[in-house]
């Protein structure tokens, strides 16, 4: 057999090994532009701690929250002082979507993890089949190959090929940038070491706060309706035009609710508050709905599906986007509440938890 037929395989092997060489030792910290992966890594060990805590005879009531960046920043000190009988395990991750929720709900089922309450943060953004900007962060960072392969029919073909490419070639996933590398090399790599230190601090905060990342600054941000409008328009363009309900995400949500109905004492669907400018667009602006001849609002397309799931699985909806749902209406951008609002945000959640059916 001629040796040249091995040449393509040797090229692929060399490319694979060269790709991994960029991730040896300190090297990744010269080009990484996000540390969001630590949120996903932390949830693996937190699950073990949650399972062990639930076995303790002296434990408090446990609430588990699945969510995204809108539900990350609860103040643990406030919760412990105001609701001493409860303890929160926060499974929120940047870009969290229903596939990630279901992955952990399956783990809960397999390991017989039974919290007293489970909350699922929902948003129409995570249910669009064809957003302009792909929401692949959760799939890449949070879902193992075994889960993706088992549920491949729930994902788009482009999601599967993107997953394979980014899991195989890490430089494609993280896209090293020469300007970033040059910046981190300054002053004897001072900024690279700063990033490593920040990573350690952030990961320790996740441990101490059981998945939450509370802000230290509770000052009110300046009211800036012009900025909120700008970010609302951009978010709407990137994630809602056009709109098509993602059958896979609807299915993952339903399956998560089925398991939660078996494991938890109470299940709640939570729609976190967004800025009024983005609320208005979701409620009032007609968009092209794939499969329909007439335009329709995002809310009219998505919310009836959520209401049906709520009725079927006895999971009440805490809709914080109703006008009078919260007094605090401060935001960092159109999608994210300011930390000053998280005390009231917490109160609305625990009001729902303690409300008798």
Report on the structure:
The chain has helices at 7-21, 37-54, 76-82, 98-111, 137-142, 145-150, 157-168, 170-174, 178-208, 225-240, 247-263, 276-284, 298-312, 342-354, and strands at residues 61-66, 86-90, 117-121, 266-271, 286-287, 296-297, 317-319, 331-333, 336-337. With 357 residues, the chain is an alpha/beta fold. The protein has a 5-stranded parallel beta sheet, sandwiched between helices. It has a two-stranded antiparallel sheet with strand order 5-6. A two-stranded antiparallel ribbon has the order 8-9. A hairpin with a 2-residue loop joins strand 8 (331-333) and strand 9 (336-337). The mean pLDDT is 91.
Question: How would you sum up this structure in a few lines?
Answer:
By secondary structure, the chain is α/β, with parallel strands linked by helices. Helix content is 52%, strand content 10%.
Biggest sheet: strand arrangement: 2-1-3-4-7
Radius of gyration, CA atoms, in whole angstroms: 22 Å
Strand proportion, as a percent range, falls in 5-15%
CATH superfamily: SGNH hydrolase
How many domains make up the 3D coordinates? 1
- Please write the string of helix (H) and strand (E) elements: HHEHEHEHHHHHHHEHEEHEEEH
Report the CATH C-level class: Alpha Beta
Topology record:
Layout: H1 7-21, H2 37-54, E1 61-66, H3 76-82, E2 86-90, H4 98-111, E3 117-121, H5 137-142, H6 145-150, H7 157-168, H8 170-174, H9 178-208, H10 225-240, H11 247-263, E4 266-271, H12 276-284, E5 286-287, E6 296-297, H13 298-312, E7 317-319, E8 331-333, E9 336-337, H14 342-354
Parallel strand pairs: 1-2, 1-3, 3-4, 4-7
Antiparallel strand pairs: 5-6, 8-9
Helix pairs in contact: 2-9, 4-11, 10-12
């Amino acid at each position: 057999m001629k040796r040249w037929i091995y040449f393509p395989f040797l090229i692929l092997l060399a490319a694979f090994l060269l790709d991994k060489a960029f991730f040896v030792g300190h090297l990744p910290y010269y080009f990484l532009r996000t540390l969001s992966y630590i949120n996903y890594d932390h949830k693996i060990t937190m699950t073990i701690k949650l399972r062990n805590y639930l076995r303790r005879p002296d434990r408090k009531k446990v609430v588990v929250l699945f969510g995204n960046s809108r539900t990350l920043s609860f103040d643990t000190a406030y919760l412990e002082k105001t609701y001493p009988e409860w303890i929160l395990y926060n499974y929120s991750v940047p870009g969290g979507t229903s596939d990630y929720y279901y992955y952990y709900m399956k783990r809960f089922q397999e390991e017989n993890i039974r919290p007293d309450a489970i909350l699922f943060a929902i948003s129409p953004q995570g249910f669009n089949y064809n957003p302009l900007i792909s929401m692949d962060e959760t799939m890449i960072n949070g879902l193992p190959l075994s889960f993706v392969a088992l549920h491949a029919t729930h994902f788009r073909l482009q999601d599967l090929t993107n997953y394979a490419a980014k899991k195989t070639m890490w430089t494609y996933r993280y896209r090293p940038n020469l300007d970033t590398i040059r910046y981190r090399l300054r002053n004897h790599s001072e900024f690279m070491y700063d990033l490593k230190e920040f990573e350690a601090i952030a990961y320790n905060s996740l441990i101490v706060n059981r998945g939450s990342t509370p802000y230290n600054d509770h000052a009110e941000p300046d009211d800036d309706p012009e900025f909120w409008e700008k970010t609302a328009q951009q978010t709407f363009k990137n994630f809602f035009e056009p709109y098509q309900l993602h059958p896979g995400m609807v299915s993952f949500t339903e399956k998560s609710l089925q398991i939660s109905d078996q494991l938890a004492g109470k299940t709640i669907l939570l729609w976190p508050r967004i800025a009024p400018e983005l609320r208005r667009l979701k409620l009032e602006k007609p968009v092209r709905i794939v499969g329909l001849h007439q335009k329709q609002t995002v809310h009219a397309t998505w919310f009836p599906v959520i209401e049906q799931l709520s009725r079927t699985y006895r999971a009440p909806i805490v809709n914080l986007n109703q006008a009078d749902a919260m007094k605090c209406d401060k935001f960092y951008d159109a999608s994210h509440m300011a930390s000053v609002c998280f005390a009231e945000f917490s109160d609305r959640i625990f009001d729902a938890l303690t409300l008798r059916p």
